[in-house]
């Protein structure tokens, strides 16, 4: 592997799209130009984002730059997790078994169901009155 190699990957979840740029470095993670612990303030979101790095023991090996758009903070964190996992896989194919065992390579297909006509929401119905 060349010293200047960098990998780009994409992660998606709900309405969020995360573009991850990974290259060898000191282990800094920046999200939308800010440090990742400043962008993801909730500890659960931080652990989601850093999970692929901790599982593969690659936390201090790569510098990661993330650009994420759309959706809410949880969707963005989960999209970033998938993007980082895919980038780690592109860097070293031997990590596939570990990442797959922890369920980090599977894209969560659940999205918001569309609103149906004649109803207030996707499945909710207006109150029924017999008389």
Account of the protein in words:
It is a single chain. Strands 1-2-5-3-4 form a five-stranded mixed β-sheet. It contains four helices and five strands, in the order ββββααβαα. β3 and β4 form a beta hairpin. Helix content is 32%, strand content 23%. The model has no long low-confidence stretch (mean pLDDT 93). The protein has a single domain, classed as Ribosomal Protein S5, domain 2 (2-Layer Sandwich), CATH 3.30.230. It is α+β, with helices and mostly antiparallel strands.
Quick tags:
single chain; 131 residues; alpha+beta; Ribosomal Protein S5, domain 2; 5-stranded mixed sheet; 5 strands
Q: What is the overall pLDDT average?
A: 93
Based on secondary structure, the structural category is: alpha+beta
Q: Termini, distance in Å?
A: 75 Å
Give the uncertain stretches in residue-range form: none
* CATH top level label: Alpha Beta
Give the oligomer, counting copies of the same chain as homo and different chains as hetero: single chain
Outline the fold blueprint.
Blueprint lengths: L5 E8 L2 E9 L4 E3 L2 E2 H4 L3 H13 L6 E8 L3 H19 L4 H6 L30
Parallel strand pairs: 3-5
Antiparallel strand pairs: 1-2, 2-5, 3-4
The gist of it:
With 131 residues, this protein is α+β, with helices and mostly antiparallel strands.
């Amino acid at each position: 592997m060349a010293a200047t190699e960098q990998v780009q990957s994409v992660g998606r979840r709900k309405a969020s799209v995360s573009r991850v740029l990974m290259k060898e470095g000191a282990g800094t993670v920046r999200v939308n130009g800010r440090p990742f612990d400043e962008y993801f303030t909730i500890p659960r979101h931080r652990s989601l984002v850093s999970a692929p790095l901790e599982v593969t023991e690659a936390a201090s090996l790569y510098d990661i730059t993330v650009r994420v758009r759309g959706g809410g903070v949880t969707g963005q964190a989960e999209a970033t997790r998938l993007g980082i996992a895919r980038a780690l896989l592109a860097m070293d194919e031997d990590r596939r078994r570990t990442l797959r065992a922890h369920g980090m390579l599977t894209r969560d297909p659940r999205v918001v169901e569309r609103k149906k006509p004649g109803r207030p929401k996707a499945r909710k119905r207006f109150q029924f009155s017999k008389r």
